[in-house]
């Protein structure tokens, strides 16, 4: 096994590992250590079954069932389908997943530790060029680069994360292909998390706000809080903190939802099929 950093602010490729196999403890420990260090890791040329992906995810913790159960794989609700494919006139999965900057499920009291995506089909142009990249940005590197007075001003503050605000902002920015149901909203009431979250393993501080989804900062007037959230978000998504992943069929990629945020680039059309299997692992309460 070898670990090859991307050279960006985050991300590394793990080579020489077949995750369809039952990995021994030492090998898995190296993979988990790399994940904690780099925030994003990926494995090329994997051929895994649904059961094998779920088993690999369970090495990192308890698997989460997504609130969008209508988009889960029939018979295997642990797997969320991220896809623009339609059958019988409806999308088989979430076609709008990730199309604005975000960290997964932050409007939960206990957001997920990580998400693991397996590329089954990737969209291409007529000449074979790959579309549908995913861009990751390091919330830890972005925090490190903040001015000391900015850190001091927001240290200990908490921001409210709202699923409804997130979906409304996404609808306004790029459109939605899903329905925001009362059931979904009942499961995801607004919740407050630290503006600067501490990684539970590395101890690194990470910016944990997203423009559009975060609606307030405790102890501040909205007229002061929203511009600060916007400023933090613009800083966070600066290209110098980013890694851009160009997908290949057979990629298995996982990201840390504390260390980074991500954006799925929607530069392909309905006729250019994209199918990803996503499994999400539970995390800890942010602190």
Structure description:
This protein is an alpha+beta fold. 24% of the residues lie in helices and 28% in strands. It is built from seven helices and 19 strands. The protein has helices at residues 25-38, 50-58, 139-144, 148-154, 163-173, 182-187, 222-236, and strands at 2-5, 12-15, 40-43, 63-64, 72-73, 76-83, 86-87, 90-91, 114-121, 134-138, 158-161, 191-194, 196-198, 205-207, 214-217, 242-245, 252-256, 260-264, 275-281. Strands 1, 2, 3, 4, 5, 6, 9, 17 and 19 form a nine-stranded mixed sheet that branches. Strands 16-10-18 form a three-stranded antiparallel sheet. The longest helix is centred in the last third of the chain and has 15 residues, at 222-236. The two termini are 34 Å apart. The model has no long low-confidence stretch (mean pLDDT 95).
Could you give the topology of this structure?
Blueprint: E1 2-5, E2 12-15, H1 25-38, E3 40-43, H2 50-58, E4 63-64, E5 72-73, E6 76-83, E7 86-87, E8 90-91, E9 114-121, E10 134-138, H3 139-144, H4 148-154, E11 158-161, H5 163-173, H6 182-187, E12 191-194, E13 196-198, E14 205-207, E15 214-217, H7 222-236, E16 242-245, E17 252-256, E18 260-264, E19 275-281
Parallel strand pairs: 2-3
Antiparallel strand pairs: 1-2, 3-17, 4-19, 5-6, 6-19, 7-8, 9-17, 9-19, 10-16, 10-18, 11-12, 11-15, 13-14
């Amino acid at each position: 096994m070898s670990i090859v950093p991307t050279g960006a602010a985050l991300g590394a490729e793990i080579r020489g590992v077949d995750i369809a196999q039952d990995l021994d403890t030492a090998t898995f420990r190296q993979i988990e250590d790399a994940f904690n260090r780099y925030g994003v890791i990926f494995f090329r040329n994997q051929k895994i079954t649904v059961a094998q992906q779920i088993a690999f995810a369970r090495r990192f913790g308890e698997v989460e069932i997504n609130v969008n159960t209508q988009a889960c794989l029939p018979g295997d609700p642990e797997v969320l389908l991220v896809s623009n494919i339609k059958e019988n006139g409806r999308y088989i999965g979430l076609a709008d997943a990730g199309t604005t900057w975000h960290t997964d499920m932050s409007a939960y009291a206990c957001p997920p530790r990580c998400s693991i995506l397996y590329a089954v089909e990737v969209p291409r142009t007529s000449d074979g060029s790959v579309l549908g990249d995913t861009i990751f940005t390091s919330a830890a590197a972005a925090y490190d680069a903040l001015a000391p007075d900015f850190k001091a001003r927001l240290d200990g503050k908490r921001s409210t994360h709202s699923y409804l605000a997130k979906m409304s902002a996404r609808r306004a920015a790029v459109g939605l292909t899903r329905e925001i149901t009362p059931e979904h909203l009942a499961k995801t009431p607004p919740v407050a998390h630290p503006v600067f979250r501490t990684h539970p393993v590395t101890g690194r501080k990470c910016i944990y706000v997203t423009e559009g989804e975060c609606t307030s900062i405790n102890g501040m007037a909205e007229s002061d809080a929203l511009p600060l959230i916007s400023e933090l978000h613009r800083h966070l998504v600066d290209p110098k903190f980013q890694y851009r992943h160009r997908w290949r069929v057979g990629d298995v990629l996982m990201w840390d939802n504390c260390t980074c945020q991500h954006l799925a680039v929607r530069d392909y059309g309905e006729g250019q099929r994209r199918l990803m299997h996503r499994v999400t692992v539970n995390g800890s309460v942010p602190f």
